[in-house]
Fold this sequence. Notes:
The structure holds 2 protein chains of 2 kinds.
Chain A: E1 2-8, H1 13-22, E2 29-35, E3 42-46, E4 49-54, E5 56-65, H2 70-81, E6 89-95, E7 100-101, E8 106-107
Antiparallel strand pairs in A: 1-5, 1-6, 2-5, 3-4, 7-8
Helix pairs in contact in A: 1-2
Chain B: H1 2-31, H2 33-44, H3 50-77, H4 103-124, H5 131-154, H6 159-162, H7 171-189, H8 210-227, H9 239-268, H10 273-287, H11 296-319, H12 328-346, H13 352-355, H14 359-389, H15 396-401, H16 403-408
Amino acid sequence: xxxxxxxxxxxxxxxxxxxxxxxxxxxxxxxxxxxxxxxxxxxxxxxxxxxxxxxxxxxxxxxxxxxxxxxxxxxxxxxxxxxxxxxxxxxxxxxxxxxxxxxxxxxxxxxxx
Amino acid sequence: xxxxxxxxxxxxxxxxxxxxxxxxxxxxxxxxxxxxxxxxxxxxxxxxxxxxxxxxxxxxxxxxxxxxxxxxxxxxxxxxxxxxxxxxxxxxxxxxxxxxxxxxxxxxxxxxxxxxxxxxxxxxxxxxxxxxxxxxxxxxxxxxxxxxxxxxxxxxxxxxxxxxxxxxxxxxxxxxxxxxxxxxxxxxxxxxxxxxxxxxxxxxxxxxxxxxxxxxxxxxxxxxxxxxxxxxxxxxxxxxxxxxxxxxxxxxxxxxxxxxxxxxxxxxxxxxxxxxxxxxxxxxxxxxxxxxxxxxxxxxxxxxxxxxxxxxxxxxxxxxxxxxxxxxxxxxxxxxxxxxxxxxxxxxxxxxxxxxxxxxxxxxxxxxxxxxxxxxxxxxxxxxxxxxxxxxxxxxxxxxxxxxxxxxxxxxxxxxx
Lengths: 113, 417
């Protein structure tokens, strides 16, 4: 089992969700986040004072998928999130120790099927 | 003969009735400006302090309104010796103002003015002042300070009224009064934590909800059409004046907004809508003194100037290390001052630009200077006394954790529910 954490532009969320549903891996948790990459945020002027290091709004999509679904999941996110521009986001992949479906108390890979 | 007399009596009765309807309507419009102040200020502060702003505006109305009933009105409109009067409650009998509405209705519309003046201060001291010491100041302000200014300007025996000082709806008595009190309050309180760095550079502290601020501004804008046209204190025989006042009020506010849109775009390459809100209000504040005596064209110029100086004033106030979260000093203080002086420049009757005579502009300058200095010095003193006794500044803990959670035990925006 792997946990995929994709930080993407908020405008890409719908397309990614649709793609994941079509790939039959529809489970996801989404968190609105703010962040900066190598550009270190941007600046704006508020009431005559420059405000620097402003973090950009992004969404973080969290999916826990089986090992065989991992590449499929990554492809969907990459296909839908990329514009080829700075600020497209990043994806992180982690190993997952266990998963439990609360309703049935099922554990392991069965819990995410 | 009898029939003529009864017709005349009927006409008087009708005049009272029509004027009362007009004044009551405008008084209600002025009163709901408090909602505008609350939303505008709440949007301009951080979300952790939104409840504290609502509390401050509530205190303005509650403590300020009662204080203005108990002694405020008597000090403003009782029998004046030129500088003050004294009476408890709502003074009975003829006030010498030629009123066609009851003294009680006149009290109600004047209460709206008093509460509006103190609400200006609530923005300047936002996000760092203790609630109870603020309540004490509100009471003093609405019971004594504002009524004294109103006495000078609007009491028929007031020394400024006798000099021919023209402050139609209160650029000086309401806005400069409130704005300079806010200046003194902000200076004594000191800036919010994190507003200035050790090297003297400024951090912007953006408001948490500009949509709320905009709604507040629109409500204030709307209410201003009670504030200025309602200051005719009647409609019968004044219907032309109402038209002039309403038109001038709009034109100045629109030009104030246009000036700010252009200024921020040219200066910062982006239109800063928080400044545009201030620009519109600046135009409104500036036209308030002279909306009865200037032409619509002059109103455009007054708005244009007001909208430009407010942008500069916001930045200058910031640079002077005076922290004014909502721009109350720039909008109400600076433009209250400018608007009052502008009467002496743009008045069709006796303005410098139209008649070449400087007598009126001198009177306007003297009046607004005295009121501004009076407000500043007294507020400065009262805040210092409060600082030594009750304390005025919240603890660092309350300020950084948020006043709402620490002082009020409730936050404006709860999560996980």
